[in-house]
Amino acid sequence: MIFNREWDSSLGVRLPIVAPLPDLLWGHLDPKARDLFIELLAAMRADKMPITPTEMFRFPQRQLYLFAKGRVLPGARVTNCDGYKLLSNHQGTGEPGTGRAVDFIFTKPGLATARIPRYYPPTGNTPETDAIEWVTLGKRAKELGLEWGGYWRDKGGRWTPDRPHVELPKVPDGDAG
Ligand SMILES: [Zn+2]
């Protein structure tokens, strides 16, 4: 593998120069989460707002690559999890088969072509004024006990939506009795 030395000093780890591709294997998700995501796909299809996954389980290399965006790579920051010290819910415990988050994109309904158009619907200034597709995604996720990233706020209460993101929240330790 080729490594970009420039990135070494900034993050204290070696990043591959070639972006690690998303892992789209359903088997790498937590089984309970996987079943709920499949139900979510069906619910959105029934609402004529079909979605398809773009990110599922992440190996640490992919998570670190995304962490580097807006830090040592161009673009906006997309995550605060570096994949090694701080794991995202896409990584679960770090082992394949434990992923708890999926990112989605919308596809145009009723077009059974090989090249399915994908799109992000328009966004608003509050979760409620986003396009109906986003509002519906949040609603259907909630009905299944999933959490939609479109509602997220930072510690200061500022709305920091991650609209494509849906996750099965972790049960806090000690609550599983
Ligand atoms: Zn995500």
Give a brief outline of the structure.
The chain is α+β, with helices and mostly antiparallel strands and 177 residues long. 24% of the residues lie in helices and 11% in strands. Helix 2 packs across helix 4.
Detailed description of the structure:
With 177 residues, this protein is α+β, with helices and mostly antiparallel strands. It has a single domain (6-167), classed as Muramoyl-pentapeptide Carboxypeptidase, domain 2 (2-Layer Sandwich). It contains four helices and five strands, in the order ααβαββαββ. Strands 1, 2, 3, 4 and 5 form a five-stranded antiparallel sheet that branches. The longest helix is centred in the first third of the chain and has 16 residues, at 31-46. The chain starts with 5 loop residues before the first helix and ends in a 10-residue tail after the last strand. The model has no long low-confidence stretch (mean pLDDT 88). Bound molecules: zinc ion (ZN). Zinc ion binds next to β2.
